[in-house]
Amino acid sequence: LTLRSGTSTFLEKEKLLLRRVRFGELAESRHLLRELFMEIQLDEALFPGILRPRLLELILVVSRGAVRGGASVLQVQEIKSRVVAEINSAVIPVEMLAASERAVVSLAESVKLTGRVNPATHTVLQAAFYLRRNYHRPLRLEEVAREVRISPFYLARIFKLDMGCTIREYLTRLRIERAKDLLQDPSLHVNEVARRVGFSDSGYFTKVFKQAEGITPTEFQRRYG
To answer: Residue 80 is inside which H or E element, if any?
Structure first.
């Protein structure tokens, strides 16, 4: 038996949560935590007792991300100490989730309130925001670099350092996540979904989607649409 919380998909979501907290993105942090919690819960059914230690481990990882984002070390330590005590004293899973959620939101807020974002990170945030607004159409590195007024080479370098992935990988993940939302509408054809999220070739969309999710868009739609 394989732990879902040990798969590459889970680890990618964990890294994404780390980045969301690091950039003070509250709503996105809460959403990702819930997704990770549900996957750990599935592991709990097969491996009783794993939920609590995995959540504690997750909070420790996210705490380090908050400090990297500019949050006060003292404040992060206080939040971490409080949530560790709350998770350890929780009796049922929903109490553990509530405690974890409060901690993640508090950590993201602690980053947001400091406002201490270095110039390179600010540029990366601008680039990521531009990608989120324009993922549905063809995008080139040069266009994004022009938008944030730096060279394509430098943007690619600092984006990878800050986000832990390339711009292409980030854009692909945005498109796949949006495609998953659209595929839950059974009236939408896969070709239409591909077009709406920025893929001109539905065959390539299917290939990329399967690499990311382990199933084709059609299978995903049958399962969740």
So the answer is: helix 73-89
